[in-house]
Structure prediction request, 242 residues.
Amino acid sequence: MFFYAFAIGSYESKIIDDIIEEIHGIIPKVLDVSDNIVGMDSRLETLISSLNIHLNGVRMVGVYGLGGIGKTTIITTLHNKISNRFRSISFLTNVREESTKDFGILKLKQLLDDTLGDRLSSEKILVFLDDIDDSRQLEHLVGKHSWFGHGSRIVITTRKKYLLRAHGVDYMYEVDKLNNVEALQLFCSYAFKQHLPKKGYRDLSIHIVQYANGLPLALKVLGSLLFRKEVKDWKSELRKLE
Prediction:
């Protein structure tokens, strides 16, 4: 039996590196998203349309809404849907929280630079900034349209609409609360692991959904809390809520 060892020169090594980079571009990392997503299709369709990915200019899109409304879930799903159409991607999470730490914004900027490097201004890239709450974060992290290569898209989430307007984003998308049908479906997916209430729980489910007021996070928390609980436990929890 013979074994062969091949020496790889710098030219061949560069070809391999280029192939690996190309594969990464074709098959980007998929981020974790809950399986229990309700009402996502129409919201995602609107957001993708607002990005105008087919156009060559740089475009910034802001996603705003109440805390717990599902902004992070929407942009994570968006990432998984469109990331294969960009050369490089950066997804910065919990920007508000990270910025409060020592040298927080500087560290986030360094992370962005480390991830994208020279490609920031030379390639078609996709950047996500999740949970912005201060104009300085926008100024330091995504600054001006001219920072980015042609075709790049920057997606920003915040609870503060005025920050998006002041920064001059190209489009602002408000995440609405779930309607009653969507809210009940989401709640049931956590409380019963199905889309409808079980027998004997319908009225209680409707009361709890009304209390959650269309906020996905509240529906998930309450549904998980009541999973496999008896009717008497549901009534007890409902009394606490009221």
The first strand starts at residue 59 and ends at 64.
